[in-house]
Amino acid sequence: MTYRAAAAAVPSMSGTSAGLANSAWARWCLYLWMLFPVVDFALRQPVVHVLGLLWDKVVLVVLAILALGRFIAGHRPQWFPWQRYAGWFILFGMGLMFAGLVQPVVAVQGYRIDVYYILYTFLFPFLIAPEDVPRLLHLGALVAMLVGIHGVIQYLLPVPIPGGWVDASEHVRTRVFSVLQSPNELGAYMALSTPLMFGLALAERDRWRRWLYAAGTPLCMATLLFTSTRGAWVALAVAVVIMAVRFERRLLLVLVVVAAVAVFLPPIHHRISELLSPVYWIKSSESGRVFKWITAYDRMSTNPLFGVGVGNFGGAVSSLYKGGIYSDNYYAKTLAETGLVGLTLFAAMHLQLMRDLFRGPLRFVRGRDRYVVIGGVTGLIAVLIHNGMENVFEFAPMAVAYFTYAMLLLIWGSAWREREEVPDAAPEA
């Protein structure tokens, strides 16, 4: 991307140089971070499981030390409004954690799942310069492409899957899961990555990378379809419609073509038609998703403002320590555990993040690079929608990818904004 030189021409707001080029430690930590799905899967194998539990904490500590060093040296990065809401949500969750310390493991673990990966976003502005963003996006896209290829291979084999992943009335060849170990989470990851890769294919000026991303996009889309995750399908379709109507209506044609092809594939046709069946919704209200959502509301109603406490309902922690259920809706889980106050703060945080993206990079990034931002934001919106049908944010690779890509786009867009506000800083064409 030619944007790197333009971004580097923007003067730092603090007058202090920053970026990955100035620290090998920061550079390699962020490279590992962009490889999160693969690295975390590899390090959680039985032989090295201890490393899998610790490696991301080590990265956090290293990044925190480096950020502190740059702060002491005088670097003052730009902060984004959504981070203020994130801070309030973190502080509120901390209060609920201390209130629930009669069950310390549940309280601490429940709080960690809600806020842990948000903490990294407060360090990124100290360490990542706008000119670093294209390289990190390329690395993230490469990982997604490798995961997509692995998903296609799993489908062709086909890999055996647990019976619980398929309804008794269905005949599904397989549901792919790759290194994410769950079809639903892999579906969310592909819904996030596919539009970003498509944007990179449209924006890329290097011929080989352009063809690489052009080939990777249908591979990732195929893997998304092979997960048989309806929530991810619907989420991405809705996200594409939103962004197409707002920015690029030609994308609607792409969506129509993909949907038309997909609907003629028997497994996909069956999954969609079942979703439209009244029988499905009756069963769902008796023991499925709708029942779980209603249960989450009932649990919240015992303490409407503050809920039943972090880690006490609807997610991995409650399932592990209290024999609870997954709510299959991260917003329902948040409502039950943190009440109306917590859900309001959580929703405000993400709504402000979307507002920052629309008023920042989507507004100021120009030229072909704009397709990268459109694709990235489309994937982020798809994740938010999918959270209404799955506990997407409880899975580490998805929380990492969502918050990391959002921050990369914001940091990238901030340089474009400075170029517009300080036009003399931009090089002449």
Automatic annotation (TrEMBL):
GO terms for cellular component: membrane. The keyword Ligase applies. The chain crosses the membrane at residues 50-73, 85-107, 113-129, 136-157, 224-245, 251-268, 330-351, 371-389, 395-413. This is O-antigen ligase. Keywords: Ligase, Membrane, Transmembrane, Transmembrane helix. It is found in: Membrane. Pfam families: Wzy_C. The keyword Acetylation does not apply. Signal peptide: none annotated. Residues 219-347 form the O-antigen ligase-related domain. It is a multi-pass membrane protein. InterPro entries: O-antigen_ligase-rel_domated, WaaL-like. Its main location: membrane. One of its GO terms (molecular function) is ligase activity. It comes from Alicyclobacillus macrosporangiidus. It comes from the Bacteria.
